[in-house]
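Render this sequence as a predicted structure.
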Amino acid sequence: MTVTSLTYVAFLGIVFAAYWTVGRRRAQNALLVVASYAFYAWWDWRFCSLMAVSTLVDYFVGLGLARTERPHRRRALLVVSLVCNLGLLGFFKYSDFFISNFQALIESLGLRSSGYTLRLILPVGISFYTFQTLSYSIDVFRRRIEPTRAFIDYCAYVTFFPQLVAGPIERAGRLLPQFHAPRRFDRALAEDGCRRILWGFCKKMILADGLSVLVEHYYGNAAARSGPGLALATVCFAFQIYCDFSAYSDIATGTARLFGFRLMRNFAYPYLSQSLAEFWRRWHISLSTWFRDYLYIPLGGSRCSRPRRAFSILATFTVSGFWHGAAWHFVVWGFLNGLGILPTALRNRPTLRATDTPGGESLLPRLAVLGRILLTFALVCVMWVFFRAHDLSQAALILYRIGSDALRLEAWREAVAYILDESMVMRVLLLLAGFVVVEWFQRRREHPLELPRWPRWLRWATYTALVWVTLDLGTRETGEFIYFQF
């Protein structure tokens, strides 16, 4: 069930009406659990069992940790959680990767291999809900939170359908207390939720799905495409994945607000960053902070020698790349991002936080600020090549074509001709330019549809216009969100 489909809108309407009708907190939480399993079963009911296993294991691990103070028993319980969650994730996501690489190693030694792989289906959202349940066990083990005995509340926390399949990855210390507390309908919160949902629909249906046509045209047959066209496709992919993933986060956050919950912010205008370190403070914030707290800091964090700190950064980003996909080009993508932030991190240079205004407070950016923003964006785009390419060889080919064709006039003519011949592509690029302008002038707000100073009639005219523009310009067959495959 894609969250931009009419099916989801109908599903959301039914759950919303039932949720506020039952009124009582426990009944609301039970309803959310049922709705969440129904939402997940719409994709494939068989994998609901995996989510149930992860939920049960960490719930009982939490109770076990509360009953013992013996260090060896506490460590044993934590190991149970780690083995269960990482085992499920590793088996379904990485089995074929390791099998195929082992077979390649055997063949390189002159031996024969069967060529057989398991060809497992990757359960949607498994990377997200396993990290969410795992963080609960780790935080209970570290005594940062108290384990809950309210099983339904805990199930609702793990399976909460708005953010189940692509985040944000919520921590129990922040979200679980919201399930414990009684809730009353908050009109202002719900209205803001609707605005976030509308903005998410616009980004996904108009920009992300529209840009995917151009990106696939070039990346789908990179060997036959020109360098300038591949460079344009890379820039478009940067915005495609941003609009696609942040759209899901907007819809998830907005949907949660309809039910009285506040999810964490997952994107904070990342392409207005002035360094790679700042970019990773603003991009996929829930995952970045997860790896910071549960991998980077345990490896040593910032309170250690520079060599060890460099190792911790590179290891964290490399593992993060591998989390994104079971392929070497994802590993390289993560490693390169780690290399990119080392100069800033090792020199302890101050970096803007996600809550700071990107690009400064001035109406227009100063030339130095603009230069740093453009340079950071260019570096991010180079790394996106490794993320979007089918493998390392294609990534290398694309970067080579971009560099070698930079001064070839014919190559530029091919790219311009494609844009001019495809009216839809030209329209999407113009809308993208407008989107960048809107993000710049609304960068002080959590999302661009926060318009508190506008007259009410103008706000509603804007919302109405966006609805009609989305229906008119949005793709008729909305594609799956990119992060569903992770």
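Summary. The mean pLDDT is 90. The chain has two domains: 6-97+116-184, 189-274+352-485.
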